[in-house]
Design a protein that fits this description.
eight-stranded mixed β-sheet; 514 residues; alpha/beta; binds NADP nicotinamide-adenine-dinucleotide phosphate; disordered N terminus; five-stranded parallel β-sheet
Amino acid sequence: MPSAAPSLAPSSGSSATRHSYAIVGTGFAGLGMAIELKKKGREDFIILERAEDVGGTWRDNHYPGAACDVPSHLYSFSFEPNCDWSRVYPTQPELKRYLREVAEKWDLLPHIRFGHQLNAAHYCEHSQRWQLETTGGNYNVGMLISGNGGLAEPRLPDIPGVERFAGKCFHSANWDHSYDLRGKHVAVIGTGASAIQFVPEIADQPAQLDVYQRTPNWIIPRKDRPYSELEKAAFRYLPGVRLALRSKIYCHNETRILGMVLHPSLMKLYERMALQHIRSQVKSPALRERVTPSYPVGCKRVLISNDWYPALQRPNVSLLSDGIQEIREHSIVDANGTEREVDCIIFGTGFYATENPIAQIIHGRGGQSLAEAWRDGEEAYLGTTVNGFPNLMLIVGPNVTLGHSSMVYMIETQIQAISRLLDECEQRHCAEVEVREAVQKQFNRALHKRLDTSIWATGCDSWYKHRSGKITQLWPDFTFRFRAMHRRFTPDDYQFSPASAAHMAESHASPSIN
Ligand code: NAP
């Protein structure tokens, strides 16, 4: 059994604490992976968490109005249903609470090293183990599983002078609730998924709110409502009702991939819906024109909101769409040269989705970093394993993000796949597993052939793309195909290596990956 493998014993003379597995992050990915390890009796793992609580993106993004745009009954673990979701779309506090309860129920807290930020990870080819440096100490682990999330590192805009601003400023992912916006002149930069949620929530507070839009988004109505007590009781006592709802949401979302990848003309349906939304909510023809995108619907993430357009039309709110020339100590100068004084800037400018900083600190064979391996754009095999990086598993790695459904489904798929690989390693008594280079290349050739004709390649700029133009974030198919491809597990796709002499010596003669 993995938990009883002799290799788990601490190695003598090393200041690093030894474990079989280290997981990074305590969002859906990290917690879900930890639960799967426990289910299989693999108890010798730690979870590195840089913050002081669990929750990942749903802990960090506590800006006013933060909520998920995937319905709650699908955006949750299949094995941990929650009958008490308050409404169709879960709010951030509910999601954070859900994740905390899951972590407690599965007794994961003793495994979590809070306040431990991963600073460096080096693969030692001799011992076939990862050496980790964290803010809380060093670790030596058999396998590194990254569940740190694709949207974990806030990105500030590359606007000249941004660092000179002397007023109050914060990113949507680091919201400062102690700062009173009332009566202030506030600027919001960015009009993406986060901004369209927090702007309507705060719009009544500042004396003046300037919203700087670079590119408008396609926005459709948000069909949200609270669940009644009767519905919650039905979910609780008639599991079939909850399962039927989950399946209905899942199937409905899957149909969206038809337009995004297979028949982009189908996206016209969404375009009609979004244009009607603008017509019904925006009175001024000039404003209608400025909020109407000029790229095909779906090229960037389609957003859902009922209160974004009304917020923009408040007397104290201005939508400024001429671009920003520079930021000065107390003002923002737009592309026309108009300077506007501001007390506070809120950056709703997104995250390092591509070129995630964690890629710079993970070093595989020959000391090469993931960032170096990915200089032309991130790539992996089925979003999970990367040639040149043995014993590294990525959850929500390259091309796993979705534009159409629940990431929790993708995360669960990857967790199961990683578990299967671990089982295979154990059966083969191997100490190292790595995807073959040719397999990774062939997979990516087919993937990008499909992506090249998708709606995401129709000319817009988005965080789905690496700066090379390669679409490195999205999965261009049905999610059940992702699962089927993972389930069609072919051991020959991987190189399984026996334990080296150094591994055997360090691991007290255990040939296992642990
Ligand atoms: P985002 O969607 O990437 O939006 C960033 C915004 O900042 C865009 O409007 C972008 O304009 C603008 N921007 C970036 N750099 C700029 C610059 N230098 N000058 C001017 N404007 C600039 O980021 P986000 O809103 O934080 O959302 C990121 C992702 O998080 C979402 O797509 C979604 O997957 C997830 N999310 C989900 C939810 C949810 O489930 N409801 C909520 C929040 C976030 P351009 O469009 O021109 O680049």
